[in-house]
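Marked as duplicate of an earlier ticket. Keeping the data here for the record.
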Amino acid sequence: MSLKLAVFDFDSTLMDGETIDEIARSVGKKEEIEKLTNKAMQGEMDFFDSLTIRAEILKGVYYDDVVRICESLPAMEGAFDLVKELKRSGSKVVIFSGGFREATSFLGKKLGVDADFSNRFQVKHGLLTGKVGGDMMFGYSKGDMMQRVQKLLGVSSEETLACGDGANDASMFAYAEKKVAFCAKPILKKQANIVIENRDLREILNHIS
């Protein structure tokens, strides 16, 4: 396998669900936030605008509840097997997420990924302030970070795989030979050269061996 770097989206890719939607469910705001999440993933709304509006809706939520929810999120079917095989073959495995570090770092550690880049809620006095910041705030953030990680590792686009499901994953595809749309929105499928419709990440292995 010539693959040296595999970069994955987190929500609805390595993890089976949307982190912010599950947090919203705990405070009765799931339907409101889910609509904004879907608009961003379909490319119908600027990602930064969607993220900041959704974070504002969660103002006042207890941070301890956020952590509890993030640490209970399920891995996508096949995630553990896929990561294990990629690492066995010598690839670095990294998470790029427009979601939140409380989720990506926890599950990422269990999966055994090499690094995770995501966002953080601002917290004061144990409560979410409604503000957010981090590595993945914009629609172009993943592509920008991809170039930086490749340079750091000395890895080329030809040696890179990118996998995601939504519009904000498209910026990675310009820097990856293998562009995987995993149970993805139509806007991302159009830019992929590998399309997987079955919710089992192990299917990716059929395209890289």
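See parent ticket for discussion. The first helix runs from residue 19 to 25.
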